[in-house]
Design goal:
Length: 131
């Protein structure tokens, strides 16, 4: 099948599918006319990539997960280690976001929100000490 059909069947944009080919995540066959010819296995791999990317895995993680998926002799601990590392990164990002949220709430509370020009939010961003 062509890239348009593959895109419809996987829910991925054709541009993304071509990108995945460019970086070696998939390698569809080529028809006699030179066009990409996606097989059922290619569609399955693309759906796998769509799900993995939807879970926030990086391209490199996806590359490793695809290799492990293809390796029937894999150790599940290898897959688990990648997933655990990803959860740790998510947890770190959540902590960072919670800290940002708390800081913004504090600054919003300190701001009078009136017609005066003084603004503790802008002062904080500019690195000025609080009064």
């Amino acid at each position: 099948m062509n890239v348009g059909t593959a895109a419809r069947r996987t829910g991925l944009p054709a541009k993304t599918i071509r990108y995945y080919e460019d970086i070696g995540l998939i390698s569809p066959a080529r028809a006699d006319n030179g066009y990409r010819d996606y097989s059922g296995d290619d569609i399955h791999r693309l759906a796998f990539l769509r799900r993995a990317r939807g879970l926030g895995f990086s391209i490199e993680d996806c590359r490793q997960l695809m290799a492990l998926y293809r390796d029937k002799g894999r150790a599940s601990q290898d897959v688990r280690a990648i997933a655990k590392s990803h959860v740790a990164a998510i947890d770190a990002k959540l902590a960072e976001l919670q800290s940002m949220r708390a800081t913004l709430h504090k600054l919003i509370h300190a701001c009078h929100g009136d017609d005066r020009p003084d603004c503790p939010i802008l002062d904080d961003m500019a690195g000025k000490p609080a009064d």
